[in-house]
């Protein structure tokens, strides 16, 4: 998925073995250098979406969690340090029959 605010893209990986497990990577284009690795899911990342303002991405995984990541800053001359400023905004867990969004604060 391409960032709306910078020349960066996001990819997800869900290999069950090896050094890359259930991670989200942010890459700088066109050099394709990896600038951040986001971890936290315990099963394969299956879904990826971006907020309308282009600052937040949400990932959904086989561990029945949604994670909201503050991954991109909005323009206006701001420069983001490689991998800097990325944080998990919140996590919602399903699996108990409840709406996972109901647990977000």
The biggest sheet, with number of strands, parallel, antiparallel or mixed sense and barrel status, is: 4 strands, antiparallel
> What is the helix/strand order?
EEEEEEE
Shape: globular
Give the low-confidence spans: 77-83, 95-105
Count every helix, treating DSSP H or I runs of 4 or more residues as helices: 0
Structural class assignment:
mainly beta
Count of discrete domains? 1
Strand order, main sheet: write it out: 4-5-6-7
Structure commentary:
- This protein has 105 residues and is mostly beta strands.
- The protein has one domain (8-95).
- Helix content is 0%, strand content 41%.
- It is built from no helices and 7 strands.
- The strands form 2 sheets. A 4-stranded antiparallel beta sheet has the order 4-5-6-7, with no helix packed on it. Strands 1-2-3 form a 3-stranded antiparallel beta sheet, with no helix packed on it.
- The two termini are 26 Å apart.
Key features of this structure:
0% helix, 4-stranded antiparallel sheet, 3-stranded antiparallel sheet, globular, 105 residues, 7 strands, mainly beta, disordered C terminus
Which SSEs are present, and which pair or pack?
Layout: E1 8-13, E2 23-28, E3 33-38, E4 45-50, E5 56-61, E6 65-70, E7 87-93
Antiparallel strand pairs: 1-2, 2-3, 4-5, 5-6, 6-7
């Amino acid at each position: 998925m391409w960032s709306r605010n910078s020349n960066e893209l996001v990819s997800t990986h869900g290999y069950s073995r090896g050094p890359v497990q259930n991670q989200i990577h942010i890459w700088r284009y066109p050099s394709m250098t990896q600038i951040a690795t986001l971890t936290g899911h315990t099963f394969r990342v299956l879904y990826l979406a971006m907020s309308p303002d282009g600052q937040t991405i949400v990932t959904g995984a086989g561990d029945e969690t949604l994670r909201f990541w503050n991954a991109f800053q909005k323009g206006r001359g701001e420069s983001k340090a490689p991998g800097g400023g990325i944080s998990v905004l919140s996590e919602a867990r399903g699996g108990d029959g409840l709406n996972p969004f109901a647990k977000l604060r």
